[in-house]
Amino acid sequence: MAAQTATGARRYWRLLSRFAAASVVATTISQLVFLVVYALGAVPVAATVTAWLAGAIPNFTLNRRTWGSTGRAGLRGEVLRYAVISVTTALLAALATHHADDLARTVFPDARSAQVAVVWGAFLGTYAVMFVVKFVLVDRVVFARRRR
């Protein structure tokens, strides 16, 4: 029983470290895209959606490899389940950035760099909070059949 628990713990540490690495790649891409698009004047929701699209595809691809999913078998279901989680996260980020934009424009009406910093913080913060939730859902829902 103890050996089985150690094996399970090692599995989760391996998955978590790979999930974190994939998240770093996707987050770096999406953060850069968000900063550029928002700083150039896009509304927060448009910047969020553009950034989400830029990060979601590499994130799914890297996580699919992490969980050992290959080929076409089950791909459609994996994409759909991942899309629900990913879109929900993007919607939460869009809501957070929208409200952060309203706040930033009120508090810093003449300081665009401060507005960008506040709204970017809301974007990054949403994804930081969702990191743990997404890991559990990706493991238990998206690639659940790989665990059996």
Give the SSE layout.
Layout: H1 2-39, H2 44-66, H3 75-107, H4 112-142
Helix pairs in contact: 1-2, 1-4, 2-3, 3-4
Transmembrane segments: 12-29, 35-58, 79-97, 117-138
Subcellular location: Membrane
Keywords: Membrane, Transmembrane, Transmembrane helix
Write up what this structure looks like:
With 148 residues, the chain is mainly α. It is built from 4 helices and no strands. Helix 1 packs antiparallel against helix 2, helix 2 runs antiparallel to helix 3 and helix 3 packs antiparallel against helix 4. The radius of gyration is 18 Å and the shape is elongated. It comes from Saccharopolyspora hordei.
Question: Summarize this, please?
Answer:
Helices cover 84% and strands 0% of the residues. The chain has helices at residues 2-39, 44-66, 75-107, 112-142. The chain crosses the membrane at residues 12-29, 35-58, 79-97, 117-138.
Largest sheet, in brief, is: none
- According to DSSP, the number of beta strands is 0
- What's the N-to-C terminus distance? 18 Å
Give the number of helices.
4
Global structural class: mainly alpha
Q: Please state the CA-atom Rg, rounded to the nearest Å.
A: 18 Å
For this entry, give a set of tags.
4 helices, transmembrane helix
